[in-house]
């Protein structure tokens, strides 16, 4: 807030920088017959125009990148697969010239049958890609190589018991089809990438959450060793998943490498809508209970619209599919989760990694089942929630996932048992509650290097990218705790692949646990090394020594050395540095091929809950939030202030998805891809009262018991609101967002059943 952070877009442009403008497709699915660049090249200030065919002639099929499938070209080569796909790039001396020249490019198309949505895709009358081409990143997809005649690029199944038979025997069954639309990430900072060649090396400064991944992608793209690729970052001004994997970086690298120029690509707000989205998801599910009210069966058919490119959609389909039944004790489940191509903007990771979409489904079902059975939605959930040591439906034992305390705390905060206001005839009041469950990304790798300076300060090298979540603060606190140092004397180096070690990804709220463990280990290794220095100097066993805030001490012999004196004595010089390096790698047991079950599917669970009291204006359909309470089990809160901010931020984003956010498509084209048309919550839409609750159930393997938190409270927001609307108005809405128009339509349908089905 003080304006002291320097972002990627703040970096000055050296003389000779070529700015890039992109010409984008106007056809959702078409063969590219010709690209006419003459008018663009004639504009003063234009340095070059590059097409996909130009790049393909130099790089071959390497221009097709992607974490799951090699299906995403830097620039479209033979055909375009969505309205807005990059067709050609203009390099110019000025960004305005580059964009104006891009508009002068003309493309001839031969139209192909479009696949507009998941229904079209599953009919199989047209195909977005001729065949599946798994990338080398996810080895478990290799068996799909060469598969043709399908728009389904991945399917996850979870089978436990016989759900069909249990449902047949059940006393009560409820069913629902829910829809969560594609949404945009809307970070304040827009994507930006600069790339240049220096002494035969490709160097890049980019707004990326995944510098290690980008380094590997660029190495493969240009067919050069990793040692000849350098990726640098700055702190990110928000991301929520939109700055991961293959965004602007492959194009910037290809242009810099093939033209020999330093290039810079700055996405406009309109461009950002075309780079990635959250997956739209339709879930058809059912939940059944026996005569005693026990949940005996859950079925879930999850369909993710991944758009033109798979991106990380297969992982989302699996990681969300495994929790599609919900955090409950259930006798039998049948889950089918699919990632499906369509001719729309590609979908990718978004805060929650697909789990908010399935939480919307399972919490809708359990809420309706409780009401059907005449039970309180809070107490019915509580009775069935998984507890410590229980086995989740996916086959993994539960640990450090205190759903009970989360749901108890949020309902207590909003006064669940207090009378609900009667309303005045126009405004009606209701309360709702929901629970969310998510697995952290597993397996992943984190490395850390620590340099202790002779003056007792330290430099920590990690590739976790701080994008507002406070990771630099947390990591310096972990080092400070282990080495008894003031965390303000610990500097965290920004991700730079020439200096900072490999890290899988900054996403999925994995950093506190994974990178935090690597940082804890590297700090402990440093402590051991320092104790060894003192033991050697004093001729005593290292296990008799203690490190405290004043240095190393041997209490029995009354020996003490400060860290500066100890290091100087060891090396005989001021300014000396002691270095340690450590790795932390989480592990899992891969899903069974037939059942989708695993005895260890994740390193840790996220557990969260939300309860809300709200009022609905039956004249306008407007929803007013009176009190929202949110809770998350964070293992241990290393920095309670940052934890509360993460819980609150995720919940507010969830409010946006619940009441406002929606990307609208018409024949494959986004119709609201500007901030004038895309609705977001304002300060006036926030709850009158918002209560964050930190729940601590220490994780046995977390750094000081801690685990991730950033996604926890986005999961249950939408179903909690929908449950409260159901309580207030008596209508069950299963399509997001809960706009005033949608609320009014459901109220009208309830008043006149003949109009139902809007």
TrEMBL record:
<dbReference type="GO" id="GO:0005506">
    <property type="term" value="F:iron ion binding"/>
</dbReference>
<dbReference type="GO" id="GO:0016491">
    <property type="term" value="F:oxidoreductase activity"/>
</dbReference>
<dbReference type="InterPro" id="IPR046867">
    <property type="entry name" value="AldOxase/xan_DH_MoCoBD2"/>
</dbReference>
<dbReference type="InterPro" id="IPR000674">
    <property type="entry name" value="Ald_Oxase/Xan_DH_a/b"/>
</dbReference>
<dbReference type="InterPro" id="IPR016208">
    <property type="entry name" value="Ald_Oxase/xanthine_DH-like"/>
</dbReference>
<dbReference type="Pfam" id="PF02738">
    <property type="entry name" value="MoCoBD_1"/>
</dbReference>
<dbReference type="InterPro" id="IPR036856">
    <property type="entry name" value="Ald_Oxase/Xan_DH_a/b_sf"/>
</dbReference>
<dbReference type="Pfam" id="PF20256">
    <property type="entry name" value="MoCoBD_2"/>
</dbReference>
<dbReference type="InterPro" id="IPR037165">
    <property type="entry name" value="AldOxase/xan_DH_Mopterin-bd_sf"/>
</dbReference>
<feature type="domain" description="Aldehyde oxidase/xanthine dehydrogenase a/b hammerhead">
    <location>
        <begin position="2"/>
        <end position="113"/>
    </location>
</feature>
<protein>
    <submittedName>
        <fullName>Xanthine dehydrogenase family protein molybdopterin-binding subunit</fullName>
    </submittedName>
</protein>
<dbReference type="Pfam" id="PF01315">
    <property type="entry name" value="Ald_Xan_dh_C"/>
</dbReference>
<dbReference type="InterPro" id="IPR008274">
    <property type="entry name" value="AldOxase/xan_DH_MoCoBD1"/>
</dbReference>
């Amino acid at each position: 807030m003080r304006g002291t952070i320097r972002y990627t877009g703040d970096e000055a442009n050296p003389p000779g920088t070529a700015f890039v403008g992109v010409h984008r497709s106007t056809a959702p699915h078409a063969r590219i017959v010709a690209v006419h660049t003459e008018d663009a090249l004639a504009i003063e200030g234009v340095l070059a125009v590059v097409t996909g065919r130009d790049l393909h002639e130099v790089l071959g099929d390497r221009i097709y990148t992607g974490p799951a499938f090699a299906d995403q070209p830097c620039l479209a080569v033979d055909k375009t697969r969505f309205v807005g796909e990059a067709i050609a790039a203009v390099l110019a001396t000025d960004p305005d010239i580059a964009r104006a020249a891009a508009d002068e490019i003309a493309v001839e198309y031969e139209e192909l049958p479009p696949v507009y949505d998941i229904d079209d895709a599953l009919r199989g009358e047209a195909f977005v890609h001729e065949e599946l081409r798994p990338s080398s990143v996810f080895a478990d997809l290799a068996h799909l190589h060469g598969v043709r005649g399908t728009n389904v690029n991945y399917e996850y199944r979870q089978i436990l018991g016989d759900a069909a038979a249990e449902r047949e025997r059940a006393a009560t069954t409820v069913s629902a089809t829910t829809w969560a639309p594609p949404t945009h990430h809307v970070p304040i900072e827009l994507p930006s990438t600069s790339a240049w060649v220096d002494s035969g090396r490709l160097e890049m400064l980019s707004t990326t959450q995944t510098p290690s991944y980008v380094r590997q992608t660029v190495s493969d793209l240009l067919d050069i060793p990793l040692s000849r690729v350098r990726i640098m970052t700055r702190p990110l001004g928000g991301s929520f998943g939109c700055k991961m994997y293959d965004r602007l970086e492959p194009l910037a690298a290809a242009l810099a490498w093939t033209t020999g120029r330093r290039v810079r690509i700055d996405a406009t707000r309109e461009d950002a809508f075309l780079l990635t989205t959250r997956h739209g998801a339709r879930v058809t599910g059912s939940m059944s209970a026996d005569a005693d009210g026990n949940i005996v069966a859950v079925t879930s058919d999850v369909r993710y619209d991944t758009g033109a490119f798979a991106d990380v959609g297969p992982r989302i389909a699996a990681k969300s599919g495994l929790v599609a039944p919900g955090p409950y004790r259930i006798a039998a489940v049948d889950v089918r989760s699919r990632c499906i191509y369509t001719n729309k903007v590609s979908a990718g990771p978004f805060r929650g990694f697909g789990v908010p979409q399935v939480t919307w489904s399972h919490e809708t079902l359990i809420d309706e089942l409780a009401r059907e059975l005449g039970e309180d939605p809070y107490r019915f959930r509580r009775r069935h929630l998984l507890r410590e040591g229980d086995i989740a439906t996916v086959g993994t034992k539960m640990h450090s996932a205190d759903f009970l305390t989360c749901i108890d705390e949020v309902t207590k905060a909003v006064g669940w048992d207090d009378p609900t206001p009667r309303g005045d005839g126009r405004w009606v009041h209701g309360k709702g509650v929901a629970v969310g469950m998510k697995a952290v990304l597993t397996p992943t790798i984190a490395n850390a290097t620590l340099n202790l300076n002779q003056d007792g300060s330290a430099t920590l090298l990690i590739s976790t990218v701080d994008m507002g979540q406070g990771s630099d603060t947390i990591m310096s606190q972990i080092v400070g705790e282990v080495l008894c140092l003031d965390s303000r004397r610990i500097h965290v180096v920004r991700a730079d692949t020439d200096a900072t070690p490999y890290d899988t990804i900054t996403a999925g709220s994995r950093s506190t646990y994974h990178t935090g463990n690597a940082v804890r280990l590297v700090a402990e290794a440093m402590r051991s090394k320092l104790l060894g220095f003192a033991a050697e100097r004093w001729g005593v066993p290292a296990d008799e020594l203690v490190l405290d805030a004043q240095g190393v001490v041997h209490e029995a012999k009354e020996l003490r050395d400060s860290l500066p004196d100890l290091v100087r004595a060891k090396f005989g010089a001021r300014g000396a540095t002691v270095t340690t390096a450590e790795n932390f790698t989480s592990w899992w047991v891969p899903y069974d091929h037939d059942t989708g079950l695993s005895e260890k599917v994740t390193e840790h669970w996220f557990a969260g809950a939300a309860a809300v009291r709200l009022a609905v204006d039956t004249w306008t359909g407007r929803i007013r939030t009176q009190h929202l309470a949110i809770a998350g089990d964070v293992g241990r809160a290393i920095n309670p202030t940052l934890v509360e901010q993460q819980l609150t931020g995720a919940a507010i984003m969830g409010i946006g998805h619940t009441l406002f956010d929606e990307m609208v498509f018409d024949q494959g084209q986004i119709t609201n891809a500007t901030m004038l048309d895309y609705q977001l919550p304002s300060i006036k839409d926030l709850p009158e009262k918002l209560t964050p609750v930190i729940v601590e159930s220490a994780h046995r393997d977390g750094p000081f018991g801690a685990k991730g938190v950033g996604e926890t409270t986005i999961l249950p927001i939408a179903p909690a609101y929908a449950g409260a609307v159901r309580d207030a108005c008596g209508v069950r809405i299963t399509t997001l967002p809960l706009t005033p128009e949608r609320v009014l339509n459901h109220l009208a349908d309830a008043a006149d059943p003949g109009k139902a089905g809007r």
